[in-house]
Amino acid sequence: MEELKQFSDILGVLAIIFIVIGIIAYNKINKNKKSESFVEHREIKTAKYKLPYYKNKYLLNQSERKLYFILNKVIDNNLIIFLKVRLADIVSVQNKYKYSRTHFNKIKSKHFDYLICSLPYLIPLIAVELDGLIHGAEMTRKKR
């Protein structure tokens, strides 16, 4: 029985890998199509101050959305997908080490695009970071 569960887990991971490869291939084929604008540039205003932030138009870019909907179709009913989860929400740093704060600072701003958890206790099973063509280009634009 345990071997069947391990085999099932391996098949699930392989399915996700093939899905990611398929999306990357699809994006390569369709790279000449005009991409949609993902950001709505509007300043956020408070009662007293004008802040330098703006609301993004979409939570996920086009590649991330496609993979999200594919994953949603193929996962079991006893699983749930969370989006944009911080690494620090999944793993913790042991405080007994001298530089535990330094280690925490290394993971606090990192995130995964998807986190698949089992229900009902929301136990993290698989974390996925999509590194597609569009995904990398957006990250490069954000750094400039």
How would you sum up this structure, described in words?
The protein is α+β, with helices and mostly antiparallel strands. Helix content is 42%, strand content 25%. The termini are far apart. Residues 34-40 have low confidence and may be disordered.
- Counting DSSP H or I runs of 4 or more residues, the number of helices is 4
Number of strands: 5
Q: Report strand %.
A: 25-35%
Percent range for helical residues?
Answer: 40-55%
Structural class: alpha+beta
Series of secondary-structure elements, N-terminal to C-terminal: HEEHEHEEH
Q: Based on CA inertia axes, which overall geometry fits? A: globular
Biggest β-sheet: count, sense, barrel?
Answer: 3 strands, antiparallel
* Mean pLDDT over all positions: 77
Strands of the widest sheet, in order across it, are: 3-4-5
Low-confidence stretches: 34-40
Distance between the termini: 52 Å
Radius of gyration (CA) equals 19 Å
List the helices and strands and how they pair.
Elements: H1 2-29, E1 39-45, E2 50-56, H2 62-74, E3 79-86, H3 100-107, E4 111-118, E5 123-128, H4 133-143
Antiparallel strand pairs: 1-2, 3-4, 4-5
Helix pairs in contact: 1-2
Task: Provide a compact summary of the structure.
This protein has 144 residues and is α+β, with helices and mostly antiparallel strands.
Structure keywords:
about 140 residues; alpha+beta; 5 strands; about 40% helix
